[in-house]
């Protein structure tokens, strides 16, 4: 018996882009939140978040040992993924 290819199994309706896009290959965190993110955020949006998060950490000299820094990044991640107003790196200008 051969498995039939189901393109829907490899896609999610991305909350950032509001369309079906390839899903993350695995949850970003080993918990319920990670599972939720894998089911609602595309691989593309997650990679963009990781890039943005790195800029925020570097520019703001955040320590990942600091609970306040973790809370800040969690809030920014949710805003970023929900297309709300989120913190941008200094000197950032939107593409025209």
TrEMBL record:
Listed InterPro entries: Fe_traffick_prot_YggX, Fe_traffick_prot_YggX_sf
Keywords: Iron
Keyword presence, Repeat: no
Family under the similarity heading: Belongs to the Fe(2+)-trafficking protein family.
Function: Could be a mediator in iron transactions between iron acquisition and iron-requiring processes, such as synthesis and/or repair of Fe-S clusters in biosynthetic enzymes.
Descriptive protein name: Probable Fe(2+)-trafficking protein
Source organism of the structure: Psychrobacter glaciei
Source taxonomy: Bacteria, Pseudomonadati, Pseudomonadota, Gammaproteobacteria, Moraxellales
